[in-house]
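Z., the sequence and structure:
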Amino acid sequence: MSNTSVIFVLGCYRSGTSLVSSILAKLGVDFGQQLYPSSSHNPNGYFESEQINHFNTQLIEKAGFTLAKPGHPQEISRIIQEKPIEFLNREWINELCIKCVI
């Protein structure tokens, strides 16, 4: 069995998630095939999964914040630690983790 890691790049609007993801992609991280396409705002592409982006939005909103005002990362981390099963019990994330373990 190979040693595989799962990498999530999460953040609010205009926080550099596309830049970080593009650097990781150039270093060999595979972000999958269902990525946001390039646009006039980001002609090189976003390197971000629509599913992970949706998860990111739900995570911030579940913590009581918005993408425009996402709150402190420690507060979001606290929410995840209090109710981790709510965030991990998603069919697509379970499938992703299973693929990484196998």
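The two ends are 7 Å apart (CA to CA). The chain is about 50% helix and 0% strand.

Let me know what you think.
H.
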